[in-house]
Amino acid sequence: MKTLRVLPIHEFPDVEAPTPFAIVKLGEAEARTQDALPHRHEFYAIQYVTGGKGHHVIDFSPYALSPDTLYFISPGQVHFGRFTQPLQGFVLVFMEEFLLYPGSFSENIYELSFFHTVGVKPVLHLNPFQAARIRSYMSAIEEEYQAGTPDRIKVLRAHLYILMVNIQRLYSAQYPGQNSAKGASFVRKFNHLVSIHCIQQTALGTYAEKMNVSPGHLSNTIKALTGQPPGHIIRKEIILEAKRLLAHTDLTAAEVGYRLNFEDPSYFGRFFKKATGLSPTAFREQIRSKYRNILSTE
């Protein structure tokens, strides 16, 4: 498996109109959004696969690609693909601000339980009836996107809203533990902020300020809803980022620690082993062996 010096971050694709939204057919998007090399996005992506074969690896979890399946990628997640047969379907990408308009998801994306998932698969398998419906929505979006008609942004937002509501219904039915209630939305927003800022900020007050609540309210609410104190979640995110860098780059363990603001490499090693049971080097060897075994079977 090829490793990188740094993990590339894909910016929003260049499109003709200055709109943070795009939809393209998978065959056309493969070179741009489905790189074989590990990478992450600054945008949200929904991949709807209707044909093809291979694996999609999202933050260490490999998913065998199968027809009539939706895959959800949140900003910051590291993923890559291995395809033995060309993919068919659509990939829909957008920035969060595209959804911020009156009447849209209570003005935040965190009410959608298929993004920013923790402990739940970012995958939704569809039966034939569900697949036909989702395919029709995707086709309508793609047709409107390509048409370039006046006021198409309003129409695209309306189509996207309908698609998201229907996906949310299906996702909630398939994963009943992950709902769009206010509490779950609060946790997803906290998780997203932690994923962005945990390397520079570990103080609870910083996150409380960003969420417009008191530190006490944030601590009590997160612990009540997740069973974990906020500090534990912040540490888990730091470990996740360490795993990403160890698995997908050729940085030394000490360099990974420095990037995560650990000045003492020995302390970073102890911190990592306490959380995972493995030294950074042992984890790197284990995860790369896992990838080789999975991907070599294709």
Overview of this structure, please?
The protein is α+β, with helices and mostly antiparallel strands. The protein has helices spanning 26-33, 128-147, 152-174, 182-197, 204-210, 215-226, 230-248, 253-259, 265-276, 280-295; strands at residues 9-10, 21-25, 39-41, 44-58, 61-64, 69-73, 78-94, 123-125. It folds into 2 domains: 9-174, Jelly Rolls (Sandwich), CATH 2.60.120; 182-295, Arc Repressor Mutant, subunit A. Strands 1, 2, 3, 4, 5, 6, 7 and 8 form an 8-stranded mixed beta sheet that branches. A hairpin with a 2-residue loop joins strand 4 and strand 5 (61-64). Helix 7 (230-248) crosses helix 10. 31% of the residues are buried.
How are the SSEs placed, and which strands pair?
Elements: E1 9-10, E2 21-25, H1 26-33, E3 39-41, E4 44-58, E5 61-64, E6 69-73, E7 78-94, E8 123-125, H2 128-147, H3 152-174, H4 182-197, H5 204-210, H6 215-226, H7 230-248, H8 253-259, H9 265-276, H10 280-295
Parallel strand pairs: 1-3
Antiparallel strand pairs: 2-7, 3-7, 4-5, 4-6, 4-7, 6-8
